[in-house]
Design goal:
7 strands, five-stranded antiparallel sheet, 8 helices, 250 residues, single chain
Length: 250
């Protein structure tokens, strides 16, 4: 078998490199053009002012009444440096991040997966072309979704606990009912819980933080049987369940 002369081999490698570089530059330019198109479309539709976007980012009116501020305190929740107070900047940074396949910040997922609710809403609102902005595989999210296996949602209310003033008004959480769930297996379903983190507050400050909303809030997901064990078995609190009339999409 004859060998390719070194000069010809070098020329072939250089040609391949030039072709690959040209393809990458062309793809980058195409992404930049489509990003600018989406940014212009978002501005025309005034998406940053829409209720859906502000709900996704937990924005509310600031005390001065002239600007907004997000209730989210984790810096990883925002993609723009001023995202906590600037819905427009956060929307633009989010669209830019959707074109990047590398993980965002400390999350081991690309932005399309780390902020999948934003991605799905913006994709619908902007009528995103999958050929020009390809959807990225969200393996971790799909695994998590299969674990939840949710079919419907039940509102759960635990009554007050007399030995703890913090539970004076009871506690509310959501249970994600699984497909094929029965009365016997509902304890295995997952719950979405939001509660105040009062671990660092004591004495008078506990009362002050509780009245003024000084505690940090946190979300968590736990199996329902753990909540029943705490509220019913250990604290003897009544638990009321109300199944919500939500569509499968909701």
């Amino acid at each position: 078998m004859s060998r390719i002369p070194p000069l010809i081999s070098s020329v072939i490698r250089r040609c391949c490199f030039i072709l690959l570089l040209g393809f990458l530059l062309q793809e980058r330019d195409a992404h930049a053009d489509y990003l600018n198109e989406l940014l212009d479309r978002a501005d025309r539709l005034n998406l940053a002012e829409r209720r859906e976007w502000r709900t996704l980012l937990h924005y509310r009116s600031a005390p001065d009444g002239e600007r907004v501020i997000s209730d989210a305190d984790d810096a990883r929740f925002f993609l723009a440096p001023t995202g906590k107070n600037d819905p427009q900047a956060e929307l633009a940074a989010t669209l830019r991040a959707f074109f990047i396949t590398k993980p965002v910040s400390a999350d081991p997922q690309p932005a399309q997966c780390a902020f999948i609710a934003r991605y799905r809403w913006l994709k619908t609102a902007l009528d995103v072309d999958d050929q020009r902005l390809p959807p990225q595989p969200c393996v971790r999210f799909q695994h998590w979704l299969r674990e939840l296996n949710a079919e419907s949602v039940t509102l759960v209310f635990a009554s007050a606990y007399l030995n703890n003033p913090a539970s004076l008004f009871g506690h509310t959480l959501l249970r994600l009912n699984q497909r094929g769930q029965t009365d016997r297996t509902r304890l295995l379903a997952y719950t979405i819980n939001y509660a105040a983190d009062d671990s660092g507050s004591h004495g008078l400050m506990y009362a002050i933080d509780g009245i003024t909303g000084g505690f940090r809030g946190q979300f968590d997901i736990q199996p329902y049987y753990q909540m029943v064990r705490i509220y019913s078995d250990l604290e003897s609190r009544d638990i009321w369940e109300y199944r919500l009339n939500l569509s499968p999409l909701q």
